[in-house]
Design the sequence.
């Protein structure tokens, strides 16, 4: 009955247990020609792990009883940490015609799954293998007890294994074990009526392996079925999103879906009043599954009183031609007649007027940024005054802020102002952003000193709306872990021994003393959470210095410094970002990068792989209006006002990296936002230029 699965090879161990007599049988299925050798080698490597790693071996077994809840836990739990260099197996059995339910209430292991881990198998034996691994889950690190973490077996056996490496100080796990009659966790069936919902079995916890469910939806005659997935989590290692879905999948009207999809993005509409939905899970990895709703729609008018996008989505009519891409395919923003209060872009788009002249090309064809400055023959000062071109570089401050006297090529005799760069010899030069640009501008060359920063292996250079970085692309990015609890905040490397982060990351709360260096461990050179590859350096902290004027209500002065307990050696994966001088200019509209392991959507889960996203600096007064005047002069805004791209929970303290020449400068520190990636709600960052002196004073950097 397994021919539906495309598994090359299936090796099953079932326990047929009745009373005290337990028998097993092995069944082997066909191995496709040419694959025999790899299967053989996988088989021979099985169980070797234990000897190879020289771990102590322990084995437990448990037979669950009806209506009783058993418990398994790591040795010593909850009084002491689990033992090092140990490999433990728990063989769990249930009565015939029952399945096993394993429900973790605590899960707190070392972060790195390649050192310490728990694996769950839908069998009684382990198979150590690569391509053929069919444990249904691998877990490590910390899981919040508020999120259910239960697993179901497909038959009446389950194997839980736990491996640990060297000495560590983590509590371990505890889980309840019970049996439920097979068939209680049902799925599929006939769904009738105008609307309804259904989920994968055991949702929102993990669905069982080897499961096949089938739903037949029927809505009243003359209607069509519209199906929307709210949650969709069917990821499996080795199965890429958007590919053939050979492993776990959902099939709607013959179309397969798999992987992880953002909320509400999978919708399907039927031609008739019925729809068939299939859910399949194979023997290996399981995920949390899906939560779907269906409704009857009028096939002739699929979007009653709404606008229908080209991609079949329905959106509120008011959202048409409002400057936002609500459909996702832009179809709601094409062929628009703009309202008088809107900017009519040449390309036919309409955009809200407050985006005019904000330094960002919102139309996409620059229409909104034309005719912004002064009339021809005049130049625009930094303070938006207009002065005659003739006054440029004439030695007189005509603008009133000195901006008509910048970039005139004068390296001596320039009056110092807020806009001029001050060399080490205390003389000022009029070059904008002269530091580390490869040309000595100061007489004493001090603008090119301490310039081993801001470069990565890469020439170019989940965050919401982001994408995976390459390993080493942002080598100044640090992951700050609270010991035993995992990633909490980001930080940036500024020297071999100092990091910059956000002050709000290091404020004590009743449960955790975040202000204490001993609370933290810093991961440098990290790419994937839990994957401490050879490039990763873990450091304890010697000191945490929050800015003394940090204001927990306004987030003003949201910056802190951390000193590592010993300096790190730079590598391709670990290097500092450049600190900007106090006068460094990060103009509105310029491209900057945000990076972090924070949530990949508002209220969502943290990212495993370091995410990056490109955003732009947003004009200060536009931003202050959008944020209801909550900005101080020590904050700057960056984002994408159409929404969809932003930093989010867990990115705090991380860098806002600004490219200048071939280097990156630390323009900001991730500080706060109103939700994440909402439209017209950019991310707010601590302005690093304002703290250059403070950083120097505290760290010498
Ligand atoms: N304060 C958040 C944290 O602690 C980061 C907020 C950034 N939010 C935003 N929408 N840009 O991780």
Sequence:
């Amino acid at each position: 009955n397994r021919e539906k699965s495309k598994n090359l090879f299936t090796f099953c161990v079932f326990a047929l247990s009745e009373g005290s007599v337990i028998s097993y049988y092995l069944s082997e299925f066909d191995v496709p020609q040419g694959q025999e050798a790899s299967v053989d080698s996988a088989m021979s490597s099985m169980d070797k792990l234990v000897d190879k790693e020289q771990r102590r071996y322990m084995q437990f077994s448990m037979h669950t009883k009806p209506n009783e809840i058993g418990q398994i836990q790591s040795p010593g739990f909850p009084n002491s940490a689990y033992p090092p260099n140990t490999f433990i197996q728990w063989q769990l059995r249930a009565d015939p015609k029952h399945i096993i339910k394993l429900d973790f209430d605590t899960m707190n292991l070392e972060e790195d799954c390649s050192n310490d881990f728990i694996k769950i198998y839908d069998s009684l034996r382990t198979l150590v293998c690569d391509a053929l691994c069919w444990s249904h889950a691998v877990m490590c690190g910390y899981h919040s007890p508020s999120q259910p973490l239960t697993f179901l077996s497909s038959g009446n056996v389950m194997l839980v294994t736990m491996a640990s490496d060297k000495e560590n100080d983590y509590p371990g796990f505890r889980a309840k074990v019970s049996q439920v009659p097979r068939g209680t966790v049902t799925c599929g069936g006939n769904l009738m009526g105008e609307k309804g919902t259904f989920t994968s079995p055991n949702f929102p916890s993990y669905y069982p392996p080897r499961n096949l469910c089938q739903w037949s939806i029927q809505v009243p005659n003359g209607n069509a079925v519209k199906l929307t997935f709210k949650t969709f989590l069917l990821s499996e290692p080795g199965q890429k999103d958007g590919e053939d879905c050979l492993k776990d999948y959902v099939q709607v009207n013959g179309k397969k879906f798999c992987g992880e999809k953002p909320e509400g993005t999978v919708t399907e509409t039927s031609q008739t009043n019925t729809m068939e939905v299939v859910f399949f899970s194979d023997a290996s990895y399981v995920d949390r599954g899906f939560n779907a709703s269906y409704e009857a729609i009028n096939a002739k008018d699929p979007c009653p009183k709404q606008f229908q996008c080209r991609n079949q989505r329905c959106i509120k009519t008011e959202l048409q031609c409002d400057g936002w891409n609500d459909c996702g395919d832009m179809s709601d923003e094409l062929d628009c007649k703009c309202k008088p209060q809107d900017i009519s872009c040449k390309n036919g788009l309409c955009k809200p007027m407050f985006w005019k002249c904000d330094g960002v090309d919102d139309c996409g064809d620059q229409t909104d940024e034309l005719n912004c400055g002064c009339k021809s023959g005049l130049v625009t000062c930094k303070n938006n005054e207009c002065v005659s071109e003739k006054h440029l570089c004439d030695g007189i401050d005509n603008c009133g802020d000195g901006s008509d006297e910048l970039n005139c090529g004068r390296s001596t005799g320039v009056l110092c102002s807020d806009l001029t760069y001050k060399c080490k010899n205390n003389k000022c030069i009029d070059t904008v952003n002269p530091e580390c640009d490869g040309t000595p501008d100061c007489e004493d060359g001090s603008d090119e000193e301490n310039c081993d920063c801001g470069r990565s292996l890469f020439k170019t250079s989940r965050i919401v709306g982001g994408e995976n970085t390459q390993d080493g692309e942002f080598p100044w990015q640090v992951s700050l872990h609270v010991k035993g609890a995992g990633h909490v905040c980001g930080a940036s490397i500024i020297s071999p021994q100092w990091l910059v982060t956000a002050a709000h990351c290091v404020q004590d709360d009743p449960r955790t003393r975040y202000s204490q260096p001993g609370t933290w461990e810093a991961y440098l050179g990290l790419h994937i959470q839990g994957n401490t590859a050879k490039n990763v350096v873990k450091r304890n902290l010697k000191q945490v210095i929050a800015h003394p004027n940090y204001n927990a209500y306004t987030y003003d002065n949201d910056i802190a410094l951390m000193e590592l307990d010993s300096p790190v050696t730079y590598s391709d994966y670990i290097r500092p970002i450049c600190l900007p001088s106090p006068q460094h200019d990060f103009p509105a509209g310029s491209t900057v990068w945000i990076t972090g392991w924070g949530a990949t959507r508002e209220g969502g889960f943290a990212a495993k792989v370091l995410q990056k996203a490109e955003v732009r600096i947003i004009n200060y007064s536009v931003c202050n209006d959008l944020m209801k005047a909550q900005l101080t002069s020590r904050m700057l805004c960056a984002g994408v006002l159409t929404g969809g791209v932003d930093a989010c929970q867990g990115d705090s303290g991380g860098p806002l990296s600004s490219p200048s020449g071939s280097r990156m400068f630390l323009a900001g520190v991730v500080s706060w936002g109103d939700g994440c990636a909402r439209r017209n709600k950019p991310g707010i960052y601590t302005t690093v230029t304002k703290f250059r002196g403070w950083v120097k004073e505290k760290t010498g950097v």
Observations:
- The longest helix spans residues 36-45.
- The mean pLDDT is 83.
